[in-house]
Design a protein that fits this description.
Low-confidence stretches: 186-194, 354-363
Radius of gyration: 20 Å
Strand content: 25-35%
Structural class: alpha+beta
Order of helices and strands: EEEEHEHHEHHEEEEEEEHEEHEHEEEEE
Mean pLDDT: 91
Largest sheet: 8 strands, antiparallel
């Protein structure tokens, strides 16, 4: 039996007296709530197949509640802010499927207990200040000798999901994700500053567990695409980026060739998927990296102090958005030497091995 301990989740702000756990039906007999001293009332809501979070909030979850959702179905993981309401604090935790789903869920729930929102807030502020004053960024990877640069003279809008969960909207759990918008349209910006497009040019090595997001609830399609990208967890794929768009790819092993083929097909369907629309940074050392399509893969620091991920596509303009880890790359400020994120921030003894595998060109069809 998996135990949910809401009293240990420091990401929920103080003030609410009620806790609600929303579970997909398949978890009903496997998860229970430990009596929390922090709350005067708590309840478990089982969501039958086909139900939406909007429906659940309207009929089963009172206002003034802290809510944790455990589900794989996208329809249960998001709802309009107007349905959440200003008096609910809602966190959504995506669960996996298959024989390891319960073990993975237990790992994710443990990470919620270990997450320190105050520490995340401090790390987020420090990274935001460093980026704002950098004048631009350089992403380098020694194994493949990949280098990409992006320069900006005006503040770049960013969004943050670090620190505490906030009332009025659905937040992904575990927390710990900062996003940097490179499109210049201000989508996702929350700081009120102006922004201009930041074109990325160079080569970028992506390696690590990806995250696949979709414009519409399409769990099967997301899972299929995720599985085709899983080779990136073992070997890097080198993307050539010109003026913010992927134009070529090179695979280092057959597993990444499969990923390159999947990306090429996605780019052919809609060239918007080939656009580099942002960077995302993982700040949560308690968040695990898992072999399924979990937002925890982006929020996790991995082996670094801060992880860095490349974002391709932009929801809802494109059908999918991909978050590709750059686990063996280091991010510095333009003209600087101190690493801001990536492998260069890893503690001693956890730096990536300096060994290069055979590199073969992938017929990506980007041109």
């Amino acid at each position: 039996m998996i135990v949910v301990r809401p009293g240990a989740y420091r990401q929920y702000p103080a003030g609410h007296n009620r806790f609600a756990l929303v579970l997909e039906q398949r978890f009903r007999d496997h998860v229970r709530i430990e009596s929390p001293s922090r709350y005067g009332a708590w309840d478990t809501v089982t969501a039958e197949p086909g139900r939406t979070l909007t429906d659940v909030l309207r009929s089963d979850v009172p206002q003034d509640s802290d809510v944790l959702i455990v589900a794989q179905d996208d329809r249960l993981l998001t709802a309009p802010d107007s349905e959440v309401g200003p008096r609910r604090t809602v966190a959504a935790l995506r669960a996996g499927t298959g024989p390891l789903a319960l073990d993975q869920l237990g790992t994710l729930l443990t990470s919620l207990e270990k997450t320190d929102p105050e520490a995340l807030g401090l790390a987020d502020a420090a990274l935001g200040d460093a980026i704002a004053t950098s004048g631009g960024l350089v992403l380098e990877e020694a194994l493949t000798e990949s280098v990409a640069k992006m320069a900006f003279t005006a503040p770049v809008r960013s969004r943050t999901g670090t620190g505490a969960f906030r009332p009025g909207t659905v937040r992904s759990a575990p927390a710990g994700l900062r996003g940097l918008d490179l499109t210049g349209d201000g989508a996702g910006g929350t700081d009120g500053t102006g922004s201009t497009a930041v074109p990325v040019t160079g080569q970028i090595a992506v390696k690590g567990w990806p995250v696949v997001r979709a414009r519409e609830p399409r769990p099967a399609a997301c899972q299929e695409l995720f599985e085709k990208l899983t080779g990136l967890s073992h070997y890097p794929l080198v993307l050539t980026v010109e003026d913010g768009t992927v134009t070529d790819m090179k695979a280092t092993e057959p597993g990444t060739a499969t990923a390159a083929t999947a990306l090429a097909r996605l780019f052919a369907d809609d060239r918007g998927h080939a656009e580099v629309t942002g960077l995302e940074f993982g700040l949560n050392p308690a968040a695990p990296q898992l072999p399924f399509n979990s937002e925890s893969n982006a929020a996790s620091t991995g082996r670094a102090a801060v992880s860095v991920h490349l974002v391709l596509g932009e929801l809802p303009r494109t059908a999918f958005q991909l978050v590709l880890d750059c686990a063996t790359s280091s991010l510095t400020g333009l003209g600087g030497t101190a690493p801001l994120a990536g492998a260069g921030t890893a503690p001693a003894g956890q730096q990536p091995r300096r060994r290069m595998n055979r590199v073969t060109a992938a017929n990506c069809g980007c041109h």
